[in-house]
Design goal:
With about 450 residues, this protein is α+β, with helices and mostly antiparallel strands. It has a single domain, classed as Outer membrane efflux proteins (OEP). Helices cover about 65% and strands about 15% of the residues. Strands 2, 3, 5, 6 and 7 form a five-stranded antiparallel β-sheet that branches. Strand 2 and strand 3 form a beta hairpin. About 25% of the residues are buried. About 5% of the residues have low confidence.
Amino acid sequence: MKKSILPILILLTITSVVFSQELWTLERCIEYALSNNIQVKQQELNVRVNEVNLLQSKMDALPTININGNHSYSFGLVTNYLTNTKEALNTQATSFSVSTSLPIYNGFQLTNTRKQNHFDLKASVADVEKVKNNIALTIASLYLQILYQQELVEIAKRQVELSTMQLERTKVLVSAGSLPEGNLYEVEALVASDEFQLVNAQNQLNLSYLNLTQLLELKSTEGFQIAKPLIPLVDSIKLVSETPSQIFSVAEGIMPQVQSARYKLQSSELGLKIAKGGLQPRLSLGANYNSGAQYRIQDGYTFDGDPFITQIKNNASKSVGLSLSIPIFNGLSARNRVTTAKIGLMNAQLALESERNALYKDIQQAYADAIAAEKKMQASLKSKAASEESFRYTQNRFNLGLVTALDFTSAKNKLAQAETDLLQAKYELIFKTKILEFYKGLPLKL
């Protein structure tokens, strides 16, 4: 038994370790967030509500059928069903009715309400997509932030390694009498400073992981690691060729925030028609069937009267008729609803224009940021190359005792800053380019 259980436990342990080390790609993060985010679930519930409203508006055009029944005991003066006169009797009576009603004309309110609910449903579906897009963009930003912080950690590690190597070299030179002992203390301080910067970079990386896992609704960051995609080289990152106007011409037709505003505008147009329909007459067709039975209660609670079925047949009455209602004066409530609907329509028109303007501004901003990042990246490339040459030159002179440790530290910090600026510009350009591609309808992926 022990021999058979041991391999199973080993297999389960290995499987658990492999699963815990499974890397999260950007696509997986987005898919997981869209499946578990609370905001998305709330918006999807709104879709279900609008589906019910649309179904109800379709059912409202069908005839209504109702059955009513009543059974009562009367003591004293009652109406005799047989003679249709008032008599002092103790009776029990059963009555029921079946009624139906069918709307024929009501100012097309039912038709317009059904159409309005249809657009409300489409708007709610677009709102779900809007929330999903916002979450996807946020996840992409946090994902790239982690990649950026990871490279900053690597830069900080290289700085620590470089300072440590310089410390060892300085110790040798000081021991040989080539450098004063004060240089050793200054390099030791530089190593401590670089180690401090490494700790800060690692803390920022941990914080970036925390932000992403919180958005994914994960309980802990333990075991969570993102997959590092193949990031293109700096020289190969290209800005999209289309202008903001060209991108906007595509985006306004596919972005859900504009689609939602457009559907809501169409809904408001139908809302105005519905309100105007309240000023028109209403015509409906109705039919009724009524019947009942009555028994006289004698002493000892014995019952006297014709059989139940016979009374139901004899007392039956049927009616069919048309009902017409013409609104004349109702406290201006109908006209006020029309005025309110007009205001709602104007508000929906402004909302659509606002969404279009906001989308165009977002595209303009992303395009401007991408151009700025591209220029900054080119400048950072030159700065990095110059800083590398300056640092090598200063390092050689420091080893010969021709410059102070302060000069060495300054050259080293300039190189680190140039590498950081280049890294920041690279990821800024990648993110803004992905946003512009996203507005063109391309999925977010690395």
